[in-house]
Design brief:
single chain, 331 residues, Rossmann fold, two-stranded antiparallel sheet, 14 helices, 7 strands, globular, binds thiamine diphosphate, binds magnesium ion, PDH_E1_Alpha_Subunit, THDP-binding, oxidoreductase
């Protein structure tokens, strides 16, 4: 689906990923409203170009870490939408047997090391995973890890610590900041001293800033950074300017905090990654993809809602790594 050279070379494949994420998110919001998804979600609508563009630059064996707003990254790396929807609805057929939910979806078989509810935490996990992969080595090309995070993460100490060690040890990791202008309701201007890219360059990490609304622009920027990391040039940093079209969290649909004016939201939504990429396709080709995605999403929802919930009997299973035993003398 993605992570293959076919996507990189094919505007239609890139459009399909954007469309898949968009429709997945819209249906997931429906399921929050109907009570099938408990606790709400952080919709990725508007930011799809980043997941689609960056993941198109990756190989299947590459790794990603994601955020609280993680559905798009997980889908773009190739996760099965049906098992993803089952995870969100807490079903035993979900990617993580319904135990992770929206903010902890993971698929290790695809190199998806997990969405993550802790802002900034994925940076250290990605750096550690890329470092471990390079230590385990082999003769093949290095595995690259990408860490997606928001502008709110750039003031987290753990992320800056990850920058430091990744730079010192020339770890093949690409840090991708999705700057959507807000951390919950707090603007970047009110929260970030200095520039976002300056955080990276302070550690000697090359940094590039691009339009994050255009999937092809993101792909064109991400591909050389990924290959630089793979070639042993150490960590790279990509800032993508983007806009969150929907709520910070679906809770906002009811609470309606006033932190963005309607005019601001309308302006932000005026550049839609779906239309930017869709304009590169004929109407007929676009319709074929839209219809196919519609079937995939309808099947995903049917699969999820038709799946059993986890049994209380095995509620404590699959929560810890199997085989773990404390070291002798450690209780
Ligand atoms: C360490 C930590 N602090 C605070 C929170 C609460 N929190 C959840 S999302 C969020 C905002 C994150 O903003 P940003 O990183 O810009 O991502 P965005 O929501 O814009 O995608 C905050 C503060 C958290 N989850 N983790
Ligand atoms: Mg943000």
């Amino acid at each position: 689906m993605t992570g293959s050279p076919a996507v990189a070379a094919d505007p239609a494949a890139l459009y399909r990923v954007v469309r898949l994420i968009r429709r997945f998110e819209e249906r997931a919001i429906d399921l929050v409203r109907s009570g099938e998804i408990v606790g709400g979600i952080h919709p990725y609508i508007g930011q799809e170009a980043i997941a689609a563009g960056v993941c198109a630059a990756l190989r299947p064996e590459d790794l990603i870490t994601s955020t609280h707003r993680g559905h798009g990254h997980v889908l773009a790396k190739g996760a099965d939408p049906a098992r993803m929807m089952a995870e969100l609805t807490g079903r035993s057929t979900g990617l993580n047997r319904g135990r992770g939910g929206s903010m902890h979806a993971a698929d290790l078989s695809l190199g998806v090391l997990g969405a993550n509810g802790i802002v900034g935490a994925g940076g250290a996990i990605a750096a550690g995973a890329a470092w471990a992969a390079s230590r385990l080595g082999g003769d093949g090309p290095a595995r690259v890890a990408v860490s997606f995070f928001g502008d709110g993460a750039v003031n987290q100490g753990v992320l800056l610590e990850a920058f430091n060690l990744a730079a010192l040890w020339r770890v093949p990791v690409v840090f991708v900041c999705e700057n959507n202008g807000y951390a919950t309701t707090l603007t970047v201007a009110d929260a970030v001293a200095g520039g976002v890219c300056d955080r990276a360059t302070a550690f000697g990490i090359p940094a590039v800033s691009v339009d994050g609304m255009d999937p092809q622009t993101v792909l064109a920027a991400a591909a050389p950074l990924v290959e630089a990391a793979r070639a042993g040039l150490g960590p790279q940093f990509l800032e993508c300017h983007t806009y969150r079209f929907d709520a910070h969290h679906t809770w906002e649909h009811k609470a309606r905090p006033r932190y963005r004016s309607e005019a601001d939201v309308a302006e932000g939504r005026s550049r839609d990654p779906l239309d930017i990429q869709g304009a590169r396709l004929s109407d007929a080709d676009r319709l074929v993809i839209d219809n196919e995605v519609e079937r995939v999403i309808a099947d995903a929802v049917a699969f999820a809602l038709g799946s059993p919930r986890p049994s209380p009997v095995d509620a404590l299973e699959f929560l810890y790594a199997s085989g773990f035993r404390p070291r002798p003398g450690v209780s």
